Amino acid sequence: MTSSQPNLRRRLIVAVASITMYSLIGAAAALTITTITGFSSAGEEAGAIVGPRVDYGSAETNERAAITMSRVEFPWQDQLPGWTIEFVEGDSDIAGYTWSREFRIEIFVRPHSTPDSLYRVLAHEFGHAVDLSLNTGDERRGWLAQRNAEDLQWWPDSGKADFQSGAGDFAEVFAVWMTGDSSDFRSEVGPTPSPSDIELMSQLVSSD
Fold this sequence. Notes:
Layout lengths: L11 E11 L5 E12 L13 E3 L3 H12 L5 H4 L4 E6 L4 E6 L4 E6 L5 H20 L2 H10 L13 E2 L4 H14 L15 H12 L2
Parallel strand pairs: 3-4, 4-6
Antiparallel strand pairs: 1-2, 1-5, 2-7, 5-6
């Protein structure tokens, strides 16, 4: 990768919604939906970049948000210097959004959310932020080749689950790389990441 700064030449306006649905016995089954809302031209002036910053939210969210962030070892302040993380109260199935134009991740803290579930959602959204900020077209094509999905489109169609796209697969493998846990792996592009997949992820994240 050429830079650890957000690549302002790529201003794809993407809203990534992580939607978690629960079975009757309370087991989580994550469904992530990505909506591509439009494109901006390369010459368009970017919004002001602030951060890195964490907003822990209200008294209702503060404690769980703080516990979640205390577990993060990924040096996101260095790798994603223009990004902000916000923890907000939520009462729907939406678990998280990644906003590329604003360089902002929203994590929704719902009544049943635990630090473990919030950490998994955050790891997935970090994967989207890393992809948007750091990956080049060649690196995305290389990732699809690694996952034996060369003909797959990278960005999901509007309103469709990103588990079937290159972007969603990258975010899911990033989540495994960050958390060290593949038990909740949801990508439909390929199997649970292999050691070589994790090695390539490490190279993509650490390259500058």
